[in-house]
Structure prediction request, 906 residues.
Amino acid sequence: MADPKEAIKENSMIIQKEMLARQFKDLSMAKELGKKVVYTFVPGNLTELILSFDMLPVYPEINALQSGMRKKSAEYIRDAEKIGFSEDVCTYVKCDIGMMLNGNIGPTGEKIPPPDLLLLSYTGCFTFLKWFENLERLYPGVPVAMLHTPYQEDGVMTEDQINYMVKQLKEEVIPKMEQVSGQKYDHARLSKMMENSAKAEDLLVKILESAKIVPSPIDAYFAGVYYIGPIFTAFRGTGEAVDYYTELWNEVQQRIKLGLGPVTPEGEIKEEKFRLVVEGPPNWTNFREFWKIFYDMGAVIVASSYTKVGGVYDLGFRHDPKEPLESLAKYCMGVYTNMNLPQRVDMLEKYVNEYKADGFLINSIKSCNSFSAGQLMIMREIEQRAGVPVGFIESDLVDPRYFSYANIKNRLESYFQMLEQRKIILKQEEATV
Amino acid sequence: MNKYYLGVDLGSTTSKAVIINEQDEIIGRGITNTRSNYSVAADIARDEAIYNARFSILQKNIRKETDFNVEYKKYITDLESVFQYEQFKVRLDRLGEELVKTCNTMFANVEKRNMMLGHLINIRKAFKPIIKHEYIYHSLGSKNQFFRDIVSEKYNEEVNKLDMALFEPLMTIWDKSISPAENERVQFNFKELIHKAMDELKEKYKNLPDTSTENKSVNFDAEMNLLKGNFDRVSDTLRKHIDEIADLEFNIANMTGTGYGRALLPFPEDCIRSEILCHAFGAHAVFPETRTVLDIGGQDTKAIQVDKYGLVTSFQMNDRCAAGCGRYLGYIADEMSISINELGPMAMQAEKEVTICSTCTVFAGAELRELTNLGEKREDILGGLHKAIIMRAMSLIARSGGVFNEFTFTGGVARNQAVIKYLTQLVRENYGNDIRINIHTDSIFMGALGGAMFARRNIKADLPSVKKTKAEA
Prediction:
């Protein structure tokens, strides 16, 4: 394969890079700064609450995906398997454990400090429970706070469920945070942060929904994962996040005005040939190669479920300064993987229609139960309801052994040819009617 | 001038070519084993399809005459067989050169070298007439066996007759020679070769013993007898037709390449299509009511759903595990020391199906031996293996959405009777007895056929099946 070109960088990208650099710098100096460190998860995260106690969040999932992008995951997974983790265990878990075994060096080359609190904020994924049980063993004596998130089994959030979540926050999570941080819970401060959260969320929705324009100014999957970065992790509720999304939204508006296509590492997409909705996380070990296959085909991802794992804001949810704990409860229960399958199908069907997609594609992840369960049903439902060709590819999150470039390219080529043929036929149909 | 369209399907195990005319009729088929040089494999398949097409044009041109004179038809069928032998001879000579070359470089010692050369000459002398006989009298050429397989089998047989000490050096010479010989495209002069074949055919009929109705010989053939009686007349009458097709300028108006090696085919990029689309399109063209296609090829299995236009709406494929593909059967045949063509018939003899737990290709070998040790019959084990393959395919079909309307089975494995038996059984069990199951004799060519159809469609920029549906509406 030819050497990849130097990727184009927009201002928002530079801002995000600086934000991340500061975040990991702070983490590496947590002790000196006298800050406590909380390990937690992306889905249903309680970032504002953590920050309101002046603690620093660490997201093992994000570390794992970054290790994947930096080609470190193979080695980390190997080391985790060496100490007994099975081949079938989620590769995020093994990558994280492997990173820990190798000195816990983060993406910036700085050391990530050990946790002062393990906050299991989301139980929709069973692996998360097991993951933190392992961390508990690896960091003996570190307190664990668990928030049990009820699954939206019936497709609704009941008053009881919300009360149950708030009760857990008040009786389990907040007391543990107070104990670890040595600070008292500050309702007003949390509420203030939520104003920022909602502002950034409004902007994110505008950005993601700009993909409804034909041709789309953004890629809502490959580029989308960068767009969701700050808000899904350590920056929600901060002024920095609001600034970042303001800048990004300006850039997107500028692109719309100039009629420009999405920015990709290979350059701008000049001609949008296909519009797709994608379900499932991307592969991280071969992220750029993977993206390039779509770029080469002129395929733009206009909507994706993955960019909703840390909040389905486009369906209307916002963090609410008026009732911060209740809105955290609703937020946790409302993330994509906590939605039941009919809800997910409804949402994806809406995406196909509203974003005028030509097709629906699933990237099925070997590691991930939360996503994979029900995917074939989802695919068939979308095929029947939305009447678009559906495609199915298989890869993994961060285990490079499960990414076969040749197989994926072969399937995607077939899929794109399917879409192309369909366009020709539909055009002929229209012409003859 | 007539226009023809070519589809080449470069599969992992075999390379297929199909030529169609403007009426979408298949007029030529060619198949060969895929080898390291993909381009040569594609060229050979294409050349064979063109030769085959010349013969079918010939048949067509004289259809009126053949309707009344069966001996004409017999002559042409025989001629094609002998023609295939003539090609074989050229390839064998080429391989012979390579064997000598390898021998010369391998043995510095003159005495030893000469001894080996002597053996090589004797081996060749021993098997050449046998192969010739099989071509000329038993139409070996129509049996879809490839040059490499035919020669390697005979070479092996002869080497095994010799002293054990010779086995290794002679097999090394073979291994080192077959690849270069096989990876080189041999250019044939059709006209020259067909004239040679006509001469050879004349010899055959001259030497054919007189047969009569009383003759109970197994070789008795009424058409052959009729032809023998009229050979010179038939030969003279057909000569001008034969020369005509030999001189026919073959105009391939457009082509499509497909299969795993498609990117390496010497075709322009816009002539390359995914094999999923081609298999579906081919199957749908032959059986227009098809909505679900199962293709079991050498190294993958695909379940494809198509719409009324023959366009793919979704597909699922198994490209991670060889269990259940053609190569799996090949491996099992090797493990059992039988030819791949014998697998199906043997499995059909099964009285029960032994449960095969491991459908991993490599581990199946060990399981096979273990089951034999436990006293299971080979037939029953094979029955179980064939069923296991179909169970895998069924799960893939379920993933792709199930079976709708007509179900068409394509790919090389569709020639295996036992596979068909279990597939039919399981499809009916799972999706109802009224599902119509289509298996075409050209099932292995479906991808190439779909390719050729795409090629034809590109020129006119429309789909044949669309027109058909429209006309019906």
Summary: Residues 39 and 374 of chain A are 29 Å apart (CA to CA). Residues 405-432 of chain A form the longest helix (28 residues). The two ends of chain A are 46 Å apart (CA to CA). DSSP finds 17 helices and ten strands in chain A.
